User: What shape does this take?
Amino acid sequence: MFQATCAACQTKGEIAANSGFFQARGKYNGLPAYKCTTCGVGLYVSNPGRAMLTKRAKMVLIPAASWTRMSEQWKQMFPED
Ligand SMILES: [Zn+2]
Assistant: This one.
């Protein structure tokens, strides 16, 4: 698990299964993508290799247009999520 801070609302939380703060949303440009459950923005981890060592994920905002498209695709794949 990683410590992470939302780039939009500054919510701090853990990236872990069922942590409740960030939900996995596949990949963005090959990097792990998450949804902030507090403010709903899309974020990606820009330092996945380093985060493995430091346990701190650097979260970067996914551009809104890309995030909207990703969210729609995710809804089609996982309508119940
Ligand atoms: Zn947020």
